[in-house]
């Protein structure tokens, strides 16, 4: 086991849900005041926030599904 799922859920709540859930990204999230809120940039934002709270070396990739046909995978590059 890489990580306890209860801990992962807590990290995801802090890094993703609290700052983004039910928010107008362009108006309510300071990061997107200067960055266009594309799916690619949302993936980068999630990566950066998760990196802050997860143990070092645990995060491998972030995958954001905008639609069934539009998926972004970001690996911190």
Automatic annotation (TrEMBL):
Catalytically driven reaction(s): 7,8-dihydroneopterin 3'-triphosphate = 6-pyruvoyl-5,6,7,8-tetrahydropterin + triphosphate + H(+)
Tell me the SUPFAM superfamilies matching this sequence.
Tetrahydrobiopterin biosynthesis enzymes-like
Question: GO molecular-function annotation terms?
Answer: 6-pyruvoyltetrahydropterin synthase activity; metal ion binding
One GO cellular component term, please give it. Answer: mitochondrion
Which BP terms in the Gene Ontology apply to this protein? tetrahydrobiopterin biosynthetic process
Which cofactors? Zn(2+)
InterPro entries with a match to the protein in the record: 6-PTP_synth/QueD, 6-PTP_synth/QueD_sf, PTPS_His_AS
Q: Which Pfam families match?
A: PTPS (PF01242)
Query: Pathway involvement?
Result: Cofactor biosynthesis; tetrahydrobiopterin biosynthesis; tetrahydrobiopterin from 7,8-dihydroneopterin triphosphate: step 1/3
Q: What class of enzyme is it?
A: lyase
Q: Which UniProt keywords apply?
A: Lyase, Metal-binding, Tetrahydrobiopterin biosynthesis, Zinc
* EC assignment: 4.2.3.12
Q: How does it assemble?
A: Homohexamer formed of two homotrimers in a head to head fashion.
- Protein family membership: Belongs to the PTPS family.
Entry function = Involved in the biosynthesis of tetrahydrobiopterin, an essential cofactor of aromatic amino acid hydroxylases. Catalyzes the transformation of 7,8-dihydroneopterin triphosphate into 6-pyruvoyl tetrahydropterin.
- Name it: 6-pyruvoyl tetrahydrobiopterin synthase
Originating species: Microcebus murinus (Gray mouse lemur)
Gene assigned in the entry: PTS
